[in-house]
Design goal:
By secondary structure, the protein is α/β, with parallel strands linked by helices. Helix content is about 40%, strand content about 15%. It has an eight-stranded parallel β-sheet. Strands 1, 2, 3, 4, 5, 6 and 7 form a seven-stranded mixed β-sheet that branches. α1 packs across α22, α2 runs parallel beside α3 and α21 runs antiparallel to α22. The longest helix is centred in the last third of the chain and has 25 residues. The two termini are about 40 Å apart.
């Protein structure tokens, strides 16, 4: 019983650290931060008579968006609003919120998304040039909702807002692990909530071709395992996104990453087949043959159909990580290169890209590709997506190419929100002139799917992508990391109403891991571990494939432990001030970790899947015991020996060793605690 009480206190204390600030202590709770915001010191009190109206009210898409906002507002407050739907018949005379716009916006790059929002004591108005601007303003309006003992209210405020970058994207890989349409829809809603406006669908890979192709049906019949989007589903996704002001850009990755294509059409490969769908992860050899006309006849037919299916003006051809091995091994390709003065594989891929550009231009599409397509002889009417770094983005902009940044936004690499937040498409010390900076369109977060499934993907996208969304929308000088985390946590839990599973699936996975036993001992551990970073998971003793289980502790563990982050901050505060209240709080937390280990061991007896975490649990207990010694010794004036200190620092070093492809996120705090002691 003692351990359960301590665990409960521990949870409450940590939760308070995240959620406990009063509204009076913060400037605002909005994310992304608006361009200009001025609170005016009063309140608009909300009740069931609240009504939304639209002027002019002949826009079905806007009316439906506003109706969804009204339902979300009702869901948050429990208020029984008398208004059911916003329609063309809705009158504005008694409206609490009036939406005004000048024209219907087009879902395209560069469309106006700015808005102004004014909340007064007795009325609320959002004005925008386009209905898309109203979509953005409505999301800000929802984020402004506050509560007190009297009920719900909106603070009176004046906001003028517009985006910093016109391209604010999220790439979702649906090829390595297929993602159902429901996953895309809930994430589209989440994107709209934080004002992102491009859904980049990575639709082909070595592991799967994921869209129906009626003109070349073997692509989806032989290259997908039956897991693909039909034409009707693609149209449904596009409609769903467009009605939230979000573009859908498809990516078909060529000439490499093409095993699934060549499973269906091996005659187009650079070496003879047969080929089968790849089940492993990595960079593979199968590559289209760029020297035969049949390849371009194939792509002409393919892109004609896809250009008619996808309504966005941009189409992504991939172009990354072609290792060139098949080209080097094919005598006819080598002969073609020699006869045409093509000196290396980079020039050969440039030849291939230019042929595809002709086809895409023919079908009124603009080419986008990863930064490998940036070659000196490529026309500059293409868009470069930089995944390898700022250098290629800057160089392409200097040469007149439009570009978007993804380097630093690879959310599958399990880096903290702070890392992504401080990464910027245009750095403060950019060498680009103001005119050259205009070629930087924005950026995209990238959710590669080797190590995620529909069950875990939301937790890898959110909440960190909220921070990225702010970087793309808000002024570049908005960079307060601590305030970002405070606001991100608030917006994260609000986004659950959209169906996201990034919070709810966590405890569900822990229940499965414990075989439906008490999850608290496991949760106390998993709350403070994170999956190993970058690509280390592939190198730590297990070979992952498409069919591997993605249900272990490492999959349940969140990319960034907020519990650990807040503990680390408490340690910093204690070391700085030796505050007794903070010391008491830290002791409760540490006692919870000490007590939890024995209960964790009991659970492992009937849950073998978590036994790989036993050493990690033990390390946590040992470090927590050490932390208690430091706290108690520091307050009673104890002088520690050098031998004690060095032994304890060795424990910290030992605790850095990953277990179950996870690492303990508390290492910095314990290092600081031990190094803070007085020694003789």
């Amino acid at each position: 019983m003692k351990s359960h009480i301590l665990a409960l206190i521990f949870f409450i204390l940590i939760s308070f650290s995240v959620y406990g600030e009063s509204p009076q202590m913060r400037q605002h709770n909005l994310m992304p931060t608006p361009s200009k915001i001025e609170f005016t010191g009063n309140q608009y009190r909300l009740d069931s008579t609240f009504v939304i109206s639209v002027e002019p009210n002949n826009n079905r898409v806007l009316n439906e968006y506003a109706t969804r906002v009204l339902r979300r507002l009702s869901g948050r407050t429990g208020l029984f609003f008398t208004q059911d739907f916003i329609t063309e018949k809705t009158k504005s005379a008694s409206s609490g919120l009036i939406l005004k716009f000048q024209r219907e916006g087009k879902v395209k790059l560069g469309e106006v998304e700015s808005y102004s929002l004014t909340i007064e004591k007795n009325k609320i108005s959002i004005n925008a040039e386009t209905d898309i601007g109203l979509f953005r303003g409505l999301e800000t309006f929802l984020q402004l909702l506050e509560a007190d003992e009297k009920g719900y209210y909106f603070p009176t405020v004046k906001i003028e807002d517009s985006p910093r970058f016109p391209w604010r994207g999220l790439m979702i890989d649906v090829s390595r692990h297929f993602m159902p349409i429901e996953m895309l829809k809930r994430n589209i809603d989440a994107m709209a909530a934080v004002k992102m406006n491009v859904l980049h669908l990575h639709l082909s890979e070595d592991q799967g071709f994921r869209v129906e192709c009626k003109s070349l049906p073997k692509l989806h019949e032989l290259g997908s395992d039956g897991l693909y989007f039909t034409h009707e589903q693609i149209k449904e996704i596009i409609k769903y996104a467009n009605e939230r002001g979000i573009r859908v850009m498809p990516e078909f990755d060529v000439p490499g990453h093409s095993t699934s294509w060549l499973t269906a059409y091996p005659e187009l490969a650079s070496l003879p087949g047969p080929y089968t769908i790849e089940r492993n992860w990595g960079v593979f050899d199968p590559t289209f043959n760029p020297t035969i006309e049949e390849t371009y006849i194939f792509f002409d037919k393919f892109f004609k159909e896809m250009s008619e299916l996808f309504n966005d003006e941009f189409m992504h051809i991939g172009g990354d990580e072609n290792n060139g091995k098949q080209w080097n091994q094919n005598p006819s390709i080598q002969k073609f290169m020699k006869e045409n003065g093509i000196k290396d594989n980079h020039e050969l891929q440039s030849y291939f890209n230019k042929r595809l550009l002709e086809i895409l231009t023919k079908y009124n599409k603009k080419m986008v590709g990863w930064d490998e397509i940036f070659q000196p002889d490529m026309p500059n009417n293409i868009v470069i997506q930089s995944w390898r770094g700022q250098k290629s983005l800057v160089e392409s902009a200097q040469k007149g190419y439009q570009g978007i940044l993804s380097n630093g936004y690879y959310i599958d690499l399990i880096q903290p929100a702070e890392f992504h937040y401080l990464n910027d498409p245009i750095t403060a010390d950019t060498p680009l002139s103001p005119e050259e900076q205009k070629f930087i369109l924005g950026g995209e977060a990238t959710m590669w799917a080797e190590l995620v499934t529909n069950e875990t993907v939301d937790s890898r996208i959110w909440p960190r992508t909220i921070a990225i969304a702010e970087r793309f929308w808000s002024p570049g000088n908005v960079r307060d990391v601590d305030d970002m985390y405070r606001r991100m946590e608030r917006i994260s839990f609000q986004m659950e109403e959209l169906g996201l599973t990034h919070i709810s699936n966590y405890e569900m996975m822990l229940r499965r891991l414990t075989n439906n036993q008490n999850i608290i001992p496991l949760k106390n551990l998993v709350d403070v571990v994170e999956p190993v970073k970058l690509y280390a998971r592939h190198r730590q003793g297990r070979k992952y494939t498409q069919q591997s289980p993605y249900t272990r502790v490492v999959d349940a563990a969140r990319p960034e432990s907020m519990t650990a982050r807040n503990f680390n901050k408490l340690v910093d505060e204690f070391i700085l001030n030796k505050n007794e209240e903070v010391r008491t709080e830290l002791r409760f937390i540490l006692l919870g970790w000490v007590d939890s280990h024995d209960e964790f061991l009991l659970i492992t007896k009937s849950s073998p899947v978590i036994q790989e975490m036993t050493k990690m649990s033990f390390n946590l207990r040992v470090l927590a015991e050490t932390g208690l010694q430091v706290l108690d010794g520091s307050m009673n004036g104890r002088i520690f020996s050098e031998d004690w200190k060095s032994k304890k620092l060795k424990l910290v070093e030992d605790a850095k060793i990953p277990y179950g492809q996870t690492e303990l996120a508390l290492i910095p705090a314990f290092n600081k605690l031990i190094n803070s002691v007085q020694v003789k």
